[in-house]
Amino acid sequence: MDRAIAIDVSHLSKSYDGHRAIVDISFTVQAGEIFGLLGPNGAGKSTTLRTLITLLTPSSGSATVCGLDTVRDPDRVRRLIGYVPQERAIDRFLTGREHLELLAALYHLRKDEANKRIAELLKLVELDAHADRPAKTYSGGMKRKLDIACGLLPDPKVLFLDEPTLGLDVQSRLRIWDYVRMLKARGMTIVMTTNYLDEADQLCDRLAIIDGGIIKTIGSPVELKVGLGGDIVSLTLKEADRIMGLESALKGQPAIKAVRTTAKGLDIRVESPEKALPVILESANRLGCSVEFIQYNRPRLDDVFIAHTGRRIEDPALSNVE
Amino acid sequence: MKEYWQEISALTMRWVLRLSREKFSMLFTLVQPMLFWLIFFGNLFQRAADSQVTQAPNYISFLAAGVVVMTVLNNGLAGGVDLLFDKENGFLERLMSTPIHRSSVILSRFIFVMTITSLQVLVILGVAFLFGVQPATGLLGIATILVIGMMFGVGLTAISMAMAFSVKSHGDFFSVLGFLSLPMIFLSSALVPLTAMPGWMSVLAKFNPMTWAIDAVRPLILSGWSEALPHVAMVVVVMLVFDALCLYGGAKAFRRAMG
């Protein structure tokens, strides 16, 4: 087995009651990286995650975690992973400490070992002062921290986070991001689902954009953005009849990758804005085009998502519960 | 084996902790069946019920066996409720992602429900005792009553869990529960003997495993071993079949729900 590969998913499909939740997806996750599954609700992210943590049996294809098959060797897979579910999977009547004690018993830890680890985790997620209060008195952010502590209790090789910051306030969100980065720094492999573009952009080393149960593209956020073919300079011209002339003047220039006309001007895809801008402005001057407005955009993950799925991730029509 | 026990005892302790945090619920869980049925219903029908028909010294002593088995029925049918909530809020998924034996969660629930039910049965027999109902078969008879209760309870809890794993929402679960529980009581020998029922009801009641349980518990309270033993032997057979069917269905529902 290649030691660097933590997860290997090969032609995985899962259907429920005739509905194909994921279709023939394949990807690998390197040990020690943060891998994201980005997509709208219902895209198949959670189904993929649940298959990897052995809670679902695939309809076809296979997946391995640390070299172990999730179907043939589920028990050994479960010993290596931690899971933080999407819902606040908290028993409101139990205290934070009791949650961790219960899980410690389920991971078959010895009492002294369990107590030591629980104390460390409570400190890590800053819940030590509230450890003996019932979870029903916790805020949303505190519950999420407890969720994460539960996921970390087995000291997993791979941690699975399902929508880790869904519904959290900005401060709690940033705190969770800090934890995730810290865990990566400790060498943990992390697989997370998210439908937040900024979260995927900020946190993930690599991500797969998934929509309609199909992986549309995989790469690092930078690769995906670069893959779109450079930055975009948008020009708005005062005289619409000069647009075509400028377009043909720019086409074929070395600094320009592509030119597309818009209603009031041009969208020019460029490799390096430093080289392209002088060329564009010089051509415009030469042809007597008055530039009313000029805008320069780095492609965002949003553009990547649109380019691969044909729609925005925030599309309200898609925000059904997965 | 040691690991298995560690899992089951930790999960069972969770149910105990939960109950201990819900003091009101604990009180009402323990008090409700005997309060409503034994004290009110028993005393209410004390004179209205014909002792020639019930073949008992008074109605409360006749009803005691019915209330014991009704308690088992209520607890058993509600036994899956907490798992249903665990399923809905994702806690079950969290448990299932740990390296536990799949059966530990289920077994912990059985142990907890059976223990609570046995305690309630003892409370009911205690209150019945205050109204002058003395079990004819003594302590061994009480132990036998508890065993019968548990055998019936296992099947019922399995049905309840199967429902918990199969229903789409807890609304469905409670509708079915409400729909099941009363007909089960009326179509059994809990409130009147089969001989006093309209023909069609007594026919239906014969197919109700609850009737078999009550018909074994009743002589243990009212008559004595010689009359009770054949009924006890019979109910053991009936319950073995009942439990086997319910456990089979429950296991199937569980496996389906767990993908």
Low-confidence stretches of chain B: none
Question: What average pLDDT do the residues of chain A reach?
Answer: 88
Biggest chain pair contact, residues each?
A-B, 32 and 26 residues
Look at the helices and sheets of chain A and give the structural class: alpha/beta
Number of domains of chain B: 1
What is the distance, rounded to the nearest whole angstrom, between the alpha carbons of the first and last residues of chain A?
34 Å
Number of helices of chain A: 11
Q: Given the C-alpha coordinates, what overall shape of chain B results?
A: globular
Distance between the termini of chain B: 26 Å
Question: Radius of gyration of chain A over alpha carbons?
Answer: 24 Å
What is the percentage of strand-forming residues of chain A?
25-35%
> Could you give the count of β-strands of chain B?
0
What value does the Rg of chain B take, in angstroms? Answer: 19 Å
